[in-house]
Amino acid sequence: MFEARLSQGAVLKKLIESIRDLVSEGNFDCSENGLSLQAMDSSHVALVAMLLRPDAFDPYRCDRSMPLGISLKSLSSILRCASNDDVITLRAEDPADQLSLVFENPQNDKVSEYVLNLMDIDSEHLGIPETVYDAVVHMSSSEFQRICRDLQQLSDSVSIDVSKEGVRFSAAGEVGSGSIALRQNTNVDSGDEATVIELQQQVNLTFSIKYLSMFAKTTPLCGRVTLCMSSDVPLLVEYKIDEVGYVRYYLAPKIEE
Amino acid sequence: GLNQKRLAWFFFPK
Predict the structure, then answer these.
(1) Cβ–Cβ of A124/B13 closer than 8 Å?
(2) C-beta neighbour count of A205 within 10 angstroms
(3) Judged by CB atoms within 8 Å, which residues 1-14 of B form the interface with A?
């Protein structure tokens, strides 16, 4: 039996909205470590790994680890029936062929119950090695979203260059070229706006903007984003979910053969 | 030119 009650139902709504364009379906694994998902996009270029730890929920009960095969589009349709301030309870029997979702309003006078039919999904799990990255950029998530949106007008690729001075995003295409440089600026009033760089070594990598823009749909979940880069390894883009979880995206770089 | 790699080129199946 799996049962998890999320007092901030909006977290689950935003989480599913943020990944539904990248992956169409996946196995949500429930275990004593929480509710997790690892799934690749259909072209196997990008991967999302998310975790909501048990302390995201109250209560959280999972007697035995099991996968919940879910169509993201279907789950998204059902979660759109929940209000942002609803409490959401997820429940599944073991073995699970359905996921029950209960939405309770804060006034405690309206209860909605939905049932999602689960799927059998053969999912391929990738082993992601622990990596010490050459460059780590902590920045405002809305600034990152804005940069992706702006440079997408020019090209389908963006180069990210991290040095001691700061981080520069640049793109070039048929209409011309553009670049946006952010300097380290820890002395700003709002903590969300600061750009902080941890640098072992200068890095310059090129990525598809289309995927970065899809990752940026996670912006409503967290005011900050972290970009982790090393030469010739996939980019890690991380959004933390309060202190109770994360959404991590990996994107393979474009490299010379 | 630059080529888009797949993730499996970097990460191994579990």
Answers:
(1) yes
(2) 23
(3) 1-14
Q: Scanning every residue of chain A, which has its alpha carbon at the shortest distance from the alpha carbon of B9?
A: A252
Q: What is the ipTM for the molecules in this complex?
A: 0.93
Q: What pLDDT, in 10s, does the model give residues A58-116?
A: 999 999 999 999 999 999 999 999 999 999 999 999 988 999 999 999 999 999 999 99
Q: What gap in Å lies between CA B3 and CA B14, rounded to an integer?
A: 25
How far is Cα A257 from Cα B2, in angstroms, rounded to an integer?
A: 7
A144 vs A219: CA distance, rounded Å: 9
In 3D space, the residue among A49, A76, A52 whose CA is nearest the CA of residue A2 turns out to be A52
Shortest Cα–Cα distance, A222 to chain B (Å)? 26
Give yes or no for a cis peptide into A220 (omega within 30° of 0).
Answer: no
Picking from A40, A129, A255, the nearest residue to B5 by CB comes out as A255
DSSP A55-72: GGSSSEEESS-EEEEEEH
